[in-house]
C-alpha cells in the first residue's frame, strides 16, 4: 500500500486530491492547520468509503521549522509528498508588510523544502517517490498586486528544476502543477464581477474545477510517469501563457 502526505488537505484542491487518491487505493496523511472541522469530516468520509486504507490526520503550522520536524516524526512509510497549501496577499508590493511576506515565504517555500529534506530517505526507499507542488500560473508570468505570491510560486519551479536532477537516480520525481484561475474559496476574495471579468479573458471560458487540477496529480503519481521530472505543467485553459 502506498502512502501520500497531502499538505493542505483541508483546502478545496487538497480535499479533491485526497478523495481521488483514496479512490485509487492510496493511504493518506491529511495535513491541516486551522480547518479542523473540514479535516475531520474528510477523514470520516474517506474512512467510511475505503475501510481497508488508513487516513491519518496531522496538524501543523508551517510558519515554523519546529512544526515541520514534529510533523515528520508522525510519518512512517511515505511514497509521495503533495503540497496543496497556499495563501495570497492582494495589494501593492510596496505596502506588503515584511512580516506577511516572511510568513508567506516560510509557509509556502521554506517549510516545504525543509520537509523534503527530512523525508528524503523515506521517499527513496522503494525507488518510487513523488514530490508534487501545486504552484500557479503567476509563478511563470507574474501578477501585479500579487508580487509576493508570484515570487514564492516561481521559486517552487526553480527548486523543482534543480532538485529533480539530484534525486532522479533515486527514482524520485519533482514536478509543479501550475493552475490558472481555479474555482476555490481563495478566489472568493474577489467579487463576482471581477471573477466574471477574469473568466471572460480565459480562452476556455471558465475557471478550472478542483477535479481538473487533481487529475494531473494522479497522472504524475502513475508508475508510467517516472520519466517526467523537473517540470512545471501549466493547467490554465489557455490563459496568460
Structure write-up:
The structure is a single chain. The chain is α/β, with parallel strands linked by helices and 241 residues long. 45% of the residues lie in helices and 16% in strands. The protein contains eight helices and seven strands. Strands 3-2-1-4-5-6-7 form a seven-stranded parallel beta sheet, sandwiched between helices. Strand 4, helix 4 (98-124) and strand 5 (129-134) form a beta-alpha-beta unit. Helix 1 packs across helix 8. It is globular, with a radius of gyration of 17 Å. The chain starts with a strand and ends in a 6-residue tail after the last strand.
What is the strand and helix layout of this fold?
Blueprint: E1 3-7, H1 12-23, E2 27-32, H2 36-49, E3 55-59, H3 65-72, E4 80-83, H4 98-124, E5 129-134, H5 138-141, H6 147-167, E6 172-179, H7 192-201, H8 210-221, E7 232-235
Parallel strand pairs: 1-2, 1-4, 2-3, 4-5, 5-6, 6-7
Which regions have little confidence, pLDDT < 50, spanning 5+ residues? Answer: none
Report helical residue fraction. 40-55%
> What is the radius of gyration computed over CA atoms, rounded to a whole number of angstroms?
17 Å
Major sheet attributes:
7 strands, parallel
N-to-C CA distance: 38 Å
Any descriptors?
globular; 8 helices; alpha/beta; 7-stranded parallel β-sheet; 241 residues
Short description:
The protein has eight helices and seven strands. The protein has helices spanning 12-23, 36-49, 65-72, 98-124, 138-141, 147-167, 192-201, 210-221, and strands at residues 3-7, 27-32, 55-59, 80-83, 129-134, 172-179, 232-235.
